[in-house]
Design goal:
The two termini are 19 Å apart. The protein is α/β, with parallel strands linked by helices and 211 residues long. Helix 2 packs across helix 3 and helix 4 crosses helix 5. The chain has a 6-stranded mixed β-sheet.
């Protein structure tokens, strides 16, 4: 499939062919959902904990005499029905991690890239560079290539221009990501994904299917 390549001014300067084994695969929404749920679950720390009755340090002295008060028989203040007592059935630390085969994870990324290309959310640019960190200049570039008002994810290769990274960090509606760490959550939560050609080469090498 041929797609246009833009310059930083948003003008088409070239066209390139995208590999079909990455950008034209059958979109499996169930697989994408499974990969997304796995990523979000694995990000959870699972350190939540409430104090149960055994964890609450309160006096075990009897509140009042056993009989004659008309009240129920209680012997300790750490019972769960009392203020300051333990919490019944509260959460305890545990792992939320989920497993998913590597080939399934890779195919989920291909499905996401294919879906983004189908919905015209992928934007390919020849290069992104700045001589100095300038948020204003980066704002103008992203407005030109990704469209004004769109949240943009900018993919860059390792060792890319640090001025670009620092300029994007100052923008509230844009995010920069090393293309090696491409993941479902970041791909699906932005209106546009800006892909420089050097980042595209990394995508081809990492997610291209070996025949």
């Amino acid at each position: 499939m041929k797609v246009p390549v833009l310059n930083v001014s948003g003008k088409e300067i070239n066209q390139i062919d995208l590999p079909a084994d990455i950008f034209e695969v059958e979109i499996n929404t169930g697989l994408m959902h499974q990969a997304y749920v796995r990523q979000m679950a694995n990000a959870r720390l699972g350190t939540h904990k409430t104090q149960k009755r055994a964890d609450v340090s309160r006096t075990s002295a009897k509140w009042y005499r056993q009989k004659g008060t008309g009240r129920a028989r209680h012997g300790a203040r750490n019972a769960t029905q009392f203020v300051g007592g333990g919490r019944p059935k509260g959460p305890v630390p545990h792992k939320y991690t989920k497993d998913m085969p590597r080939k399934m994870r890779q195919q989920a990324i291909r499905c996401a890239l294919s879906a983004l290309l189908r919905d015209e959310q992928l934007v390919f640019v020849d290069s992104l560079s700045l001589e100095a960190p300038k948020t204003k200049d980066m704002r103008q570039m992203l407005d030109a290539v990704a469209g004004k008002g769109n949240k943009a994810l900018v993919l860059i290769p390792v060792g890319a221009n640090e001025n670009v990274v620092n300029s994007i960090h100052n923008l509230g509606d844009a995010h920069v990501l090393r293309v090696n760490y491409l993941n479902m959550r970041d791909l699906l939560q932005y209106d546009r994904v800006v892909v420089p050609l050097d980042a595209l080469e990394v995508i081809k090498s990492l997610w291209g299917q070996v025949s």
